[in-house]
Write a structure and sequence with these properties.
Strand content: 25-35%
Number of domains: 2
Shape: rod-shaped
Largest sheet: 6 strands, antiparallel
CATH class of the largest domain: Mainly Beta
Length: 250
């Protein structure tokens, strides 16, 4: 609104200067005509009018310049103010994100082991079971913790693990996990026959433990952690897979 007022004022000044300039030309013509007619009185007053009109023209010209410069200064000040506000907003957003990243919970699978006993007698047959332990390395508790864990083996294991799909959830329904201790769960294979049980337990066939941990942080932001590990042959330890391990983004 202020910028529009100054712009209108500048236009008005230019219009006035143009009108006065036309009057000045007419006065000058009248002076020359008066001198030609040898009418000293008319010439004197006409010349006086010319001087006054010229002074008014000069004053209006200066006013127009001042208004124009003031208008430019206002635009520059407005631009600087907008730039400063944008910078302050960006700095505040960055500070808020940094604070959340520093203080939030971070859940991940810290270790894996064969269950005791490793053979699970559950409905549907005999299964091989292993445990996954989840810890929180962040600074604040995780809320609504869910551990989706699975076990598989065989030549199709990699494809099965990469095809995992876990639906996200929109409210923190689940357990809480603080920064001390862990939360663990047991993963079971599909039903297996006796020869397969023997090969897995003897370390001839590697068993894979994989899944997703879902949770919310104290800032009500949703997170996921993917995990995958497999047991080395000959009853070796569990080591991380080259896939299936990620924080928040797969």
């Amino acid at each position: 609104m202020v910028d529009d007022d100054f712009a209108q004022a500048a236009r008005n000044c230019r219009d006035r200067a143009s009108t006065i300039w036309k009057s000045l030309k007419r006065c000058t013509t009248a002076v020359l005509s008066a001198f030609r007619r040898s009418d000293p009185a008319v010439a004197f007053f006409t010349m006086l009018l010319v001087v006054v009109v010229g002074l008014q023209t000069e004053i209006i010209s200066k006013q127009t310049q001042i208004i124009s410069k003031t208008d430019e200064a206002l635009h520059e000040a407005a631009d600087a103010s907008q730039s400063a506000a944008a910078t302050a907003k960006a700095a505040l957003e960055f500070s808020s994100r940094s604070f959340k990243e520093e203080q939030r919970a971070y859940l991940w699978a810290s270790s894996f082991n064969m269950s005791t006993p490793p053979i699970c007698q559950v409905p549907g047959g005999v299964h091989i079971c292993a445990d996954v332990h989840i810890v929180n390395s962040g600074r604040t508790p995780a809320i609504g913790v869910r551990i989706h864990r699975y076990a598989t083996f065989g030549p199709d294991a990699v494809g099965v693990i990469k095809a995992i799909k876990i639906a996200s959830y929109t409210s923190p329904a689940g357990d809480m996990l603080g920064t001390v201790g862990d939360k663990w769960g047991t993963a079971a294979t599909d039903a297996v026959d006796d020869p397969t049980v023997k090969d897995i337990l003897n370390g001839k066939i590697s068993i894979y433990i994989y899944g997703v941990v879902q949770y919310y942080d104290i800032f009500s932001d949703y997170h996921e952690t993917g995990f995958c590990a497999f047991r080395l042959p000959n009853n070796g330890p569990f080591i991380a897979c080259e896939f299936g391990n990620w924080f928040d983004k797969r």
